[in-house]
Amino acid sequence: MKILVGYKRVVDYNVRIQVKPDGTGVVTEGVKLSANPFDDIALEEALRLREKGVAEEVVIVGIGPADLTAHLRNGLAMGANRAIHVTTAEAIQPLTAARTFLKLVEKEQPGLVILGKQAIDDDANQTGQMLAALWDRPQATFASKVEIAEGKATVTREVDAGLETIEAELPAVITTDLRLNEPRFIKLPDIMKAKSKPIEVIEFASLGVEAGGHLKTTHYAAPPKRSKGVMVNDAAELVATLKQKGLL
Amino acid sequence: MTKILVIAEHLDGKLNPSTARAVSAAAAVKPEAIDVLVLADNADAIAAEAAKIEGVTRVLTANRTENAHALAAVLAPQVAKAAAGYSHVFAPSTTFGKDLGPRVAALLGVPQVSDVMTVEGSHTFKRPVYAGNAIVTVEADPALPVVATIRTASWPAAAIGANSAPVEALGLDVALPSHTRFVELKQGKSDRPDLQSASKVVSGGRGVGSKENFEIIYKFADRIGAAVGASRAAVDAGYVPNEMQVGQTGKIIAPELYMAIGISGAIQHLTGIKDAGTIVAINKDAEAPIFEVADIGLVGDLFKIIPELESAL
């Protein structure tokens, strides 16, 4: 079985984002970029399935500008067999991303697609579900445990009420939650080895992805600031303050 | 014509409060009608509850044995079919709505607006990005249906009681897939108030130190009638189950009082509590980022402070 893994590059999760004063976006110049943390978990899970003999090949997919190559090399160094780089200078929204993945699914015929549950930049949490819908296959979102056997995935999902387990016939789409696994660190020799692994470059325009259905983002704003707080000296003062506010 | 279909969330025959919050957001669009769709194996009791929500025009039910569990792959084709004639489809931005909404949107060939915080116009919304560190204004195409999930922490629940909307069974003749099957749900049984709707929440973090030590948090929360939450660190360390996590990837909450105990205040955690009325931080590290957002801060050892708080109550 082949596993396709979405591997998005985002502003690093430790960066404190600044909104541009003119409201046109957030400052990304000179800001550290990294793999979306949920995508690292997706790749790790795919690699573990390969190590268990469930899968033979792990293919990472990146959609973005020409300089995405270095990012894809990181995924190859982590252990992916090869990469597909769909090149576009445009920012791709989830529906377009899902349509793009569908084209790659038709081309590659994977048994499983693993994506992160959300990207930490747009926080949309949509692409996996949309791909599953367009592909007309099962989805197992927010996965914290995955077992593959006899042509089906048994997936434990982190839902608001607790932990839900479902069965999904393969092929299927799984999206990863934080507790699925602990992604491995990239070792130096693997970085060297990754340089010889193939990256297939596909022009976004050549895929014939259906256009339309975009949201227009008209303005970025910083969130409202909370007013300055006060410090209290002890528990008694805290209780008195909360009682005064009618909160206790 | 503006008509909104709100997808009801429910579990064990009970309507989830997130539904009434989604109805509030629907009302903000000022539509001609707000219909609530209940997909279940036995929708009657849930529909009766939904009919009481202020502002609801009609409650539509889709009773099918396949709807016994909320599987997005099974529900989405029904919702997509029921969406005909509606300008908007709203679902709460809970794990239920997040799972279902995008699948419905893709079937309709439209984008989804995730986590609507405010309604600026019938097709203009504000939503958070970058863990809530930026708020974007997005415009949807007025020629297409809008599929959106509603950030429950941003909306009060519509009042329940005065309304009595008519309930109508909907005949949705849709072939349903059998490729996805429910196996089981393990619920963290708790008598405490529900984390997402509680007016008071006490949360513990890594500073609590162990699963056993978390008892001190539970005991204090019970004393003041609060729900209990946790930071990711506390969940990852195994002190508490995952459904208690508050933050960007856990639950986003807006209680009147939020007490963060032994929580440093990572960006991802603060995302989950930005809309809380009053934030109280108790931490031994005076430099902890949680104090930057706290309305009331107290520096000190939680194991000393909590007993003192209890005796001061």
Q: What structural category arises from helix and sheet content of chain A? A: alpha/beta
Question: Tell me, what is the CATH class of chain A?
Answer: Alpha Beta
The tally of strands of chain B reads 18
Gyration radius of chain B, in Å: 21 Å
* Largest sheet: spatial strand order of chain A: 9-8-7-10-6-1-4-5-11
Q: What can be said about the biggest beta sheet of chain B?
A: 7 strands, parallel
The pLDDT mean of chain B sits at: 96
Strand order of the largest sheet of chain B: 7-11-6-1-4-5-12
Mind describing the biggest β-sheet of chain A? 9 strands, mixed
Q: How many domains in all of chain A?
A: 1
Looking at the structure, the CATH topology of chain A is: Rossmann fold
Could you say what the CATH architecture of the largest domain in chain B is? 3-Layer(aba) Sandwich
Structural class of chain B: alpha/beta
Instruction: Tell me the number of helical segments of chain B per DSSP (H or I, 4 or more residues long).
Output: 9
Organism (chain B): Frateuria flava
Protein name (chain B): FAD-binding protein
Family (chain B): Belongs to the ETF alpha-subunit/FixB family.
Keywords (chain B): Electron transport, FAD, Flavoprotein, Transport
